[in-house]
Amino acid sequence: VGTTPTKIPVLDWEEARGAVLKAVQDARPVPRIEEVELPAAHGRVLAQDLKADRDYPTLARSLRDGFAVHASDLPGTLAVMGELRAGEGLAARLPPGHALEIMTGAPIPDGADAVVMVEHVERDGAKVTIAQQASAGQFINPQGAEAAAGNTLIPAGTRLDASHIAALAMAGHWHVKVFRKPSIAILSTGDELVGVQEAPEPHQIRNSNSYALAALVEAAGGTAVIQPIARDTHSELKSALERGLEHDLLLISGGVSAGKYDLVKPCLRDLGAHFAFERVRIQPGQPTAFGRAGSKFVFGLPGNPGSSMVTFQLFARPALELLGGESQPVLPILQAAFEEPFKHKPGLTRFLPARFTANGLLKHVAWQGSSDIPALARANAFLIADHDRETWNAGDTIRVMLKP
Ligand code: AMP
Ligand code: MG
Q1: pLDDT score, position 394
Q2: How many angstroms separate the CA atoms of 154 and 212, rounded?
Q3: Ligand 1: which residue has its CA nearest to atom 3?
Q4: Closest by alpha carbon to 214, among 300, 308, 292?
Q5: What is the pLDDT of residues 53-71, one digit of tens each?
Q6: Is 118 helix (H, G, I), strand (E, B) or coil?
Q7: 224-257 b/e with 16+ CB inside 10 Å = b?
Q8: Ligand nearest 373 Cα, by number?
Q9: Which residues line ligand 1 (CB under 6 A)?
Q10: Does the pLDDT of residue 8 top 80, yes or no?
Q11: Mean pLDDT over each residue of the chain, to the nearest integer
Q12: Ligand 2 mean position, distance from CA 231 (Å)
């Protein structure tokens, strides 16, 4: 009944992310399975282990253009037995003292145990002279070395990237079982908001978060369902929140700070929600709230565009990924070196817009704060300025989260 907790949990961002992962992992329903055709499988989450249908490679194959030989014959002069191209069937057994001309990818004849690159061979009609020694196995990709028949190539719960598409194609899978995409409700709140196609008064702003969050949701593999803007009143918010909780996950933008009209949390509590955290030691995004209402998870993301973008990526995205059947959401964090000195105010861990330059170094993108969409649009990454360090020199490294 809208009671205020006596102690609001405040977490570091890693702890908060860990709390999200644990809560959703422990309670998520098993997603439904559907079948898509291979070309539509990119970005989907595999719902069953993909097994190798045969050995890869199926036969020992040459890794180079050259000659298949007995390594023990070298150095020496060998009789050329003929030529074998990729796509041709297996040649007869190679007798000692002989070499078979062979192209990359062609099967190694029985008896041969090495390939000598064509560059190291002197040819004279039906004979080749090889001055070098060869070690057994050189330039041969042995049968089953990449995967043996029955091996798991991709475990269930993997989000399929281009290499996974290659693996599915390689193993002959046209029909692919994937998890249904989770349905993610997006609810922007605020009396100051107008629709994108409306003419805002000077004191009004257009609702950009609903569309930015929808783009983030779709990029993360969810189906975004944008709800109408909710005004900052109990009655309007409560019915909007109830509708949002019909989806697999509810993302709310705005209304979670400490202001008088920040009514999202009290309204959610009225609907039976409990929060795992309501504050994270980061900027932007400090007032981020994560909780559960009934069987559904819900995020209250602060309304400033930079805040909602960063907190989506840190906290809501892994929840979405788990609800979509992914077994192990990861946040890729890179290390980058600064092109110029950089300074921030310690105390909170800051996720600040930054840009990788053409030479691979990182530059801070100046901004007016988390409302500054034009600065976000100039960035291609967020640097992660730790709460306990103030200055970085040019060349010093810092952690970076790529902009999704
Ligand atoms: P709030 O978290 O509700 O206090 O909102 C903080 C600020 O974020 C507001 O003053 C708005 O300027 C901005 N904001 C809130 N919601 C949106 C939205 N849907 N789209 C763009 N900006 C927003
Ligand atoms: Mg607001």
Answers
A1: 97
A2: 32
A3: 254
A4: 308
A5: 999 999 999 999 999 999 9
A6: helix
A7: bbbbebbbbeeebbbebbebbbebbbbbbbbbbb
A8: 1
A9: 188, 190, 192-193, 205, 207-210, 253-255, 257, 259, 302-305, 371
A10: no
A11: 96
A12: 9
